[in-house]
Specification:
Layout (H helix, E strand, L loop, with lengths): L9 E2 L1 H8 L5 E5 L3 H6 E2 L4 E2 L2 H6 L1 H5 L5 E5 L4 H12 L5 E4 L2 H7 L5 E2 L6 H20 L6 H17 L3 H7 L12 H7 L3 H4 L1
Parallel strand pairs: 1-6, 2-4, 2-5, 5-6
Antiparallel strand pairs: 3-7
Amino acid sequence: MTTAPPAPDTVDAATVIDWAGRPDDVTIVDVRSPAEFETMHIPGSYNVPITLLGEHAAEFAARLDRKVVLVCQTGVRASQARLRLAGVGAENLHILDGGVPAFASAGGDVVRGQARWAMDRQVRLAAGSLVLASILTSLKLPSARFVAGGIGAGLTYAAATDSCAMSKILGMLPYNKGPADRSLREVLGALPSQQSAA
């Protein structure tokens, strides 16, 4: 069985490991939550949560004047970030195939902190638990099956729109806050300036 070739804007972990050795040429932007970033991240990467980037894509795009690698846990949120940034004119955007775990598996250095579940794993647990509970409850209370239908509809909508309300809700839990949330100004200020790239 053959696998489809990766999208042209996707790069493998070995390539990103090579690029990371030249930090003046590349900016690695990790779009996961602060808690996920704290759990494990690529040294020298910048944490720009997808929710913040989505709301302020133009401001971030203005700071990204060199090769950019977008990373997350699996590539889904990095793909969303690429679409948002490209939509406001950003160029030279790449997605790390397989996310931070692929980078670590390929022998790339990573910084490890407090272990937490990745957001996509939390979403699967929450959605699956709600569906299972509603189906079991429906054995005694038939109308409970509509909860399972609602979760299914929500997951379908999330796939169709490439968004996920459940991950946004889960991201508000204290467990997912990680270190102190940073303001837009703090996150933008942490990115390399165009003068430092020159």
